[in-house]
Amino acid sequence: MDIKYLAIVGGLTLFTSTAFALEPIPGSIIYNGQPKTRLQKAPVGSTFTHEFSLYGNTYSETYRIKPDRSLELLNRRQLNRH
């Protein structure tokens, strides 16, 4: 492969992985940083959802447990709108 091609693909991968990172909002489990307690029994890579309300709207977030036992916010859906 051409080195220019690899540089472009690498740059696009970096851009898409950082430019569209989902940021926590008030009510997110990781809004004030990672929780003090770690999920020890759940397998690494497993996912779970968390629902919360903010300003009259209900949200559902999906998290994944990373190998270091920290949480990664994968997506957020707004369930209702007031």
Distance between the terminal alpha carbons, to the nearest Å? 52 Å
How many separate helices? 1
Low-confidence stretches: 13-17
Average of the residue pLDDT scores? 84
Main pleated-sheet profile: 3 strands, antiparallel
Element order, helices and strands? HEEE
What global shape is seen? elongated
Strand content bin: 25-35%
Structural class: alpha+beta
Strand order in the sheet with the most strands: 1-2-3
Percent range for helical residues?
Answer: 10-25%
Overall radius of gyration: 16 Å
Number of strands: 3
Outline the structure in words:
The protein has 82 residues and is α+β, with helices and mostly antiparallel strands. It contains one helix and three strands, in the order αβββ. The chain has one helix at 3-19, and strands spanning 47-54, 57-65, 71-80. Strands 1-2-3 form a three-stranded antiparallel sheet, with no helix packed on it. β2 and β3 form a beta hairpin. The radius of gyration is 16 Å and the shape is elongated. The termini are far apart.
